[in-house]
Specification:
This protein is mostly beta strands. The chain has helices at about 5-15, 145-150, and strands spanning about 40, 55-65, 70-75, 90-95, 95-105, 125, 135-140, 160-165. The strands form 2 sheets. Strands 1-2-7-5-4 form a 5-stranded antiparallel beta sheet, with no helix packed on it.
Length: about 170
């Protein structure tokens, strides 16, 4: 290492000083609130052709429920829009005529899918995320009973409302 003389050291000390940079900092919060959200879609339930006296006719409909991850929910089905229909005995209509049917939670046709009142049940689940649907099957049965055998020919229909409560 070379020995600098006093004059060289003095000259270096007279050179422009190196500026120290000054800084100031702060922080700010970043927040978001994820709200519970659900949506539902349903396919048609078509019993097809019914010939009175030929036995019960069954069909099914697929429901898809999409909820934010971890959101608990229940799925209820209405009595339908046909006048006189109830959860215990839904009706399809053709003008003033009706045809009995019902909707169930399983293919055993033992538990009526309704709103949880009057002996009916709802289905429950927990959201998997809005991109991942949970599938439910609605099982329908048009019973071959004396009441249905007494109805007129033609097309019958009803509309069910699916309600997801979360």
């Amino acid at each position: 290492m070379r020995n600098l003389g006093y004059a060289a050291v003095a000259a270096l000390s007279l050179a422009a000083p190196i500026a120290d940079a000054a800084t100031a900092t702060t922080t700010f919060p970043v927040t978001a609130t994820v709200l519970a959200s659900c949506s539902v879609s349903a396919g048609a339930l078509a019993f097809g052709n019914y010939t009175p006296g030929s036995g019960n006719v069954t069909g099914s409909s697929a429901l898809q429920v999409r909820c934010t991850r971890g959101t608990p929910y229940t799925v209820a089905l209405s009595a339908g829009t046909t006048t006189g229909g109830t959860l215990a005995q839904r009706l399809m209509a053709q003008t003033t005529n009706s045809l009995q049917y019902n909707l169930f939670t399983t293919a055993a046709y033992t538990t009526i899918w309704g709103d949880g009142t009057g002996g009916t049940a709802t289905q429950a689940g927990t959201g998997l995320g809005v991109a991942t649907p949970t599938a439910f099957t609605v099982f329908g049965r048009l019973p071959d009973s004396a009441t249905n055998q007494a109805t007129v020919t033609g097309a019958f229909s009803d509309t069910i409302t699916v309600t997801v409560t979360y």
